[in-house]
Automatic annotation (TrEMBL):
The lineage of its organism: Eukaryota, Viridiplantae, Streptophyta, Embryophyta, Tracheophyta. The modification N6-(pyridoxal phosphate)lysine is found at residue 319. It holds the Pfam family Pyridoxal_deC. One of its GO terms (molecular function) is pyridoxal phosphate binding. One of its GO terms (biological process) is carboxylic acid metabolic process. The keyword Lyase applies. Its EC number is 4.1.1.25. This is tyrosine decarboxylase. GO terms for cellular component: cytoplasm. PANTHER family: GROUP II PYRIDOXAL-5-PHOSPHATE DECARBOXYLASE, TYROSINE DECARBOXYLASE. Its cofactor is pyridoxal 5'-phosphate.
Length: 519
């Protein structure tokens, strides 16, 4: 039998500096370095261009073709992070970041993530880490009470909450539960008859979930919205759509109502929509991914009035609740519907605790088996700041957005396109010498028939937005509602202050001056 080939057996230094990959003292040394590195990053983040300025494929030119054979020091690696990775980041934690929706961080959220990652438990059932399961159940009840959710959504009222990764997962899980509950009544062979309802403003996660759940593409309804309803779903429009489907022999299944749509933070009227849906035994999921956090403030709670008649409700704590990605909070009235649709019980996972039916096994509340200890970071956020400070943080962002809205209103070259409801302002620059018809407030063609100048206005704002973002001074994104291209200014980065909002408006004005001079 031939001898095994061992490279550089004599005097090799393959293990030099890496005696054990989890050595406590080396962890302490490198961990201090990493914290210092990130603290310096947060201190200096506003000095970087907010949107990355690199070209596609930049990193492959910087890095070797293969992994190193021998170990490299953390000092060398962090130097490369600074030189090669940071230039390719869009800085979501920058105080000049106003794009998409926020991914707000905090010291507590970060430290909670450290604990979760450090413990590195895989809490798929109670037995695999009892604290992970029980803490999750407790903090979901805490947050549910902060939101004044009805008791039927809490563990104390036979409902319950679970932490998913994202809203996409939450919608898929609830849609799957609704699908199976209905098919158990009408027969699985009738899956082609099931219909899912949203609007032309609903997040694309609903359509993806419907595809994955096996809903026929022709049975996905994006009910049109109008400016007259501020792009919220009309209960009458929903009912007429449902009735047409029933007449065609189809089976209404699932409605996703939104509180704070991505395009414009529009709010669907939860109560009236639930009344319509309940007439036809439709599962109602309320997607409050962005705006749900604000509903811990009494002045915003009314936006989820009627939630007591919904079947499930979710918000993303990693958007606007100072808890790092990922952390989607999902509450359901009927946990058994999730469990029946998503559970598995292989021999190797059987245990006395599960068989006692006295514990929660969260593996049966989600798509995947493995799951992270997400509740740790949410627990730290709730305890470190308390309800009073969390409300204060949210209100400060709303106030900054209102200030920005005031700046827009003072400059007659601009207009607000849709009402500012939370902490996002949707605005646009008007073309020079525009006729009154082009003003959104008097917009006569909101159903897709554009005034001849609308295309011109849209192109003007595309140029303006790209100019702003290319400068690196601020980052914003866009959407289109009612044929109107608008710029979205979303306040929510934890480091943002009034001075950053003032600076952002000056950047907008300066770039508008330059664009209008050549338009």
């Amino acid at each position: 039998m031939g001898s095994l080939h061992v490279e550089n057996l004599a005097g090799n230094n393959i293990s030099k500096g890496v005696e054990n990959p989890l050595d406590p003292e080396e962890f302490r040394r490198q961990g201090h370095m990493m914290i210092d590195f990130l603290a310096d990053y947060y201190r200096d983040v506003e000095k970087y261009p907010v949107r990355s300025q690199v070209e596609p494929g930049y990193l492959r030119k910087e890095l070797p073709d293969s992994a190193p054979y021998n170990p490299e020091s953390i000092e060398t690696i962090l130097e490369d992070v600074h030189k090669q990775i940071i230039p390719g980041l869009t800085h979501w934690q920058s105080p000049n970041y106003f794009a998409y929706f926020p991914s707000s961080g905090s010291v507590a959220g970060f430290l909670g993530e450290m604990l979760s990652t450090g413990f590195n438990v895989v809490g798929f059932n109670w037995m695999s880490s009892p604290a992970a399961t029980e803490l999750e159940s407790i903090v979901m009840d805490w947050l549910g009470k902060m939101l004044q959710l009805p008791k039927s959504f809490l563990f104390s009222g036979n409902g319950g909450g679970v932490l998913q990764g994202t809203t996409c997962e939450a919608i898929l899980c609830t849609l799957t539960a609704a699908r199976d509950r209905m098919l158990n009544k009408i027969g699985r062979e009738n899956i082609c008859k099931l219909v899912v309802y949203g609007t032309d403003q609903t997040h694309c996660a609903l359509q993806k979930a419907a595809q994955i759940a096996g809903i026929h593409p022709k049975n996905f309804r994006a009910v049109p919205t109008t400016k007259s309803n501020n792009y919220g779903l009309s209960p009458d429009a929903l009912r007429s759509t449902i009735l047409a489907d029933i007449e065609a022999g189809l089976v209404p299944l699932f409605l996703c109502a939104t509180v704070g749509t991505t395009s414009s933070t529009a709010v669907d009227p939860i109560g009236p929509l639930c009344e319509v849906a309940n007439d036809y035994s439709i599962w109602v999921h309320v997607d409050a991914a962005y705006a749900g956090s604000a509903c811990i403030c009494p002045e915003f709670r009314h936006f989820i009035d009627g939630v007591e008649n919904a079947d499930s409700f979710s918000l993303n704590a990693h958007k606007w609740f100072f808890t790092t990605l990922d952390c989607c909070c999902l509450w359901v009235k009927e946990p058994s519907a999730l469990i029946k649709a998503l559970s598995t019980n292989p021999e190797y996972l059987k245990n006395k605790a599960t068989e006692s039916q006295q514990v929660v096994d969260y593996k049966d509340w989600q798509i995947a088996l493995s799951r992270r200890f997400r509740s740790m970071k949410l627990w730290l956020v709730l305890r470190s700041y308390g309800v009073a400070n969390l409300r204060k943080f949210l209100r400060s962002h709303v106030k900054m957005a209102k200030n920005f809205e005031g700046f827009v209103n003072l400059d007659k070259r601009f207009e607000i396109v849709v009402p500012t409801t939370f902490a996002m302002v949707c605005f646009r620059l008007l073309p020079p010498a525009a006729s009154p018809l082009i003003k959104t407030n008097g917009y006569q063609n909101g159903n897709g028939v554009y005034h001849k100048d609308e295309t011109r206005a849209n192109e003007l704002n595309r140029r303006l937005l790209e100019s702003i973002n290319a400068s690196g001074s601020a980052y914003m994104t866009h959407s289109v509602v009612g044929g109107v291209y608008m710029i979205r200014f979303a306040v929510g980065a934890s480091l943002s202050e009034d001075r950053h909002v003032i600076l952002a408006w000056k950047v907008v004005q300066e770039h508008a001056d330059a664009i209008l001079a050549t338009f």
